[in-house]
Amino acid sequence: MSNTNDPINSKVVIITGASSGLGEATARRLAARGARLVLAARREDRLSKLAEDLKAEGAEVTWQMTDVTDRNQVESLAATAKETFGRIDVLINNAGLMPLAPLDALKVDEWDQMVDVNIKGVMYGIAAVLPIMREQHSGHVINLSSVAGHKLFPGAAVYCATKYAVKALSEGLRMEAGDEIRSTNISPGAIDTELTSTITDPNAKQAADELYKVAIDSDAVARAIVYAIEQPADVDINEIILRPTAQEL
Q1: Alpha helices by DSSP H, the chain
Q2: What is the CA radius of gyration of the chain?
Q3: Residues with Cβ < 8 Å from 5, sequence gap 6 or more?
């Protein structure tokens, strides 16, 4: 699907949360550049359909239903990638939730869910691939944070906390990884995905829907991810923040 001189051609890339939104858009972009993909998500039907679509276009793709809150499943995902393609070049920690609500709403179950998916899911991903990347003396971890990982918003304290944590994990990995493993933190603003569908608080949902009127296409983030991956090995794109031009916050 891509020429052999393309720096992305033949790279083995794991994408979590690949069944829709940013994950799906990124999978399509990388497949078009000749990457070998390992797609993961909880929705088996959508995941298998995406994989079949990409295979029909000539891509090398495997997929595995994965809940990133389960460390064993994430370890199994990394093992599948290694067994199928012999290596892991890139992990894109994309799976995430955004059930916004003010702290007074005491939606503690949603807090727990955000911590499990947005923070622990990222850590489990890093833990699963880091030994493999160390062994092969190369690798790249791309974590999806958010503008909310740089700026606090009323009604989003817990979500912001999880995305600040992702930013810290990305920077910590960069500092510890040495010159063989790259770390990139991608922080999107309002992007047209299913992210706001997890909001159960009516006031928070109304505020988010108002903000997301200016949302831009998921492919904008996919292009940023591709840009980070395609750089030569001695260039590490550490941080990308991107918003709709019309987004003020």
Answers
A1: 21-32, 44-56, 71-85, 108-114, 121-136, 157-177, 202-211, 219-230
A2: 17
A3: none
SS3 233: coil
Catalytic annotation, pick one of 159, 164, 212, 227: 159
pLDDT digits (tens, 9 = 90+) for 143-155: 999 999 999 999 9
Element housing 62 (H / E):
strand 60-65
Tokens 């039907």 belong to which residue?
A: 45
Look up 159 and say whether it is catalytic: yes
List, for residues 158-216, the tens digit of each pLDDT value: 999 999 999 999 999 999 999 999 999 999 999 998 888 889 999 999 999 998 999 99
- Rounded to an integer, what distance in angstroms lies between the CA atom of residue 171 and that of residue 124? 16
Task: Give every strand in the sheet of 181-188, ordered side by side.
Answer: 60-65, 36-41, 12-15, 90-93, 139-144, 181-188, 239-242
Instruction: Quote the CA–CA distance of 38 and 90 in Å, as a whole number.
Output: 10
- Give the count of alpha carbons within 13 A of 51, CB side only: 21
Please give the span between the terminal C-alpha atoms of the chain, in angstroms, as a whole number: 39
Tokens 């990305």, residue located = 170
